[in-house]
Design a protein that fits this description.
single chain; alpha/beta; nine-stranded mixed beta sheet; 11 strands; 24% strand
Length: 263
């Protein structure tokens, strides 16, 4: 099997500044890590490759420092990786991101399965995976908690639909997004880190390297979703303490709610 796993480098802290003009995160100088959901996606890919044979490649879009996240995926078991890195990719919403990733997939040769984490911790939209599948014209399903079988033509998975679990079979090639806690992600291998030259295994592409790229569909210019304003929530420490018996407290609480026109 030829498996592609999409990964994203996200801030390792929630204390990230926001550009007041563009509304995008300022990532320079911020400690980063692989998106936690993507670790579960990686482990599913490695497990499939080990069980059925094949290889796992990884794909990411981001600034040059995102190469470190791709190196980590190679230490974990990926055979090679592709990084889409160009300022023209920057500031992308889910639509522009999925468009860019579809171009990256086109640079990676034939594939049987694309695996994405359910969502990212810096965006939480859970939309990029399905949108990528739509742009590639392949079947997809989200919230996968288990891969039951892959016979070379189809893959059978279990999906968490909140109140029920659904078993589904998809024709290859297809895309799935993986839920958290679907498995236990492996750690990077120290031996692979010491023996492998990742710079030879990671290909970096700019927009200029992809002739079919339409700049109008990439980055900020290709993002129909625009952030008008981001601001920290106002803190309100006002409080009212009520004392008395159960009957007195209930009367006081009702009077307070009525005064504030909640009832």
């Amino acid at each position: 099997m030829n498996i592609i796993v999409c990964v994203k480098q996200v801030p390792g802290t929630n204390k990230v500044a926001v550009d007041p003009v563009t509304g995008v995160l300022i990532r320079d100088g911020v400690d980063s890590k692989i998106n936690p959901y993507d670790l579960f996606a990686l482990e599913e890919g490695f497990a499939l490759a080990e069980k059925y044979g094949g290889q796992v490649k990884t794909l990411s879009m981001g600034p040059p420092m995102a190469k470190e996240a791709l190196k980590e995926t190679i230490y974990m078991g990926a055979s090679e990786a592709v990084l889409l890195s160009d300022r023209k990719f920057g500031g992308a919403d889910v639509a522009a991101t999925s468009c860019a990733l579809s171009l990256g997939v086109g640079k990676m040769g034939e594939y049987d399965l694309i695996i994405c984490g359910k969502q990212t911790t810096d965006g939480d939209t859970a939309q990029v995976g399905p949108e990528l599948a739509e742009k590639l014209g392949i079947e997809h399903i989200a919230n996968v908690t288990e891969i039951l079988e892959c016979d070379g033509k189809t893959v059978t998975v279990v999906c968490d639909l909140d109140k029920v679990h659904q078993t589904a079979r998809l024709s290859l090639p297809c895309l799935i997004t993986v839920e958290k806690d679907a498995n236990t992600p492996r750690l990077p291998s120290y031996n692979r880190k010491k023996s492998m030259n990742c710079d030879e295994l990671i290909k970096v592409y700019s927009v200029a390297d992809i002739p079919e790229a339409d700049e109008k569909k990439l980055g900020l210019s290709g993002s129909p979703t625009q952030v008008e304003r981001i601001f920290p929530p106002e803190k309100n420490t006002d409080r009212t303490m009520l004392e008395g018996s159960a009957n007195e407290l209930s009367d006081s609480l009702y009077a307070l709610l009525k005064e504030r026109k909640f009832v």
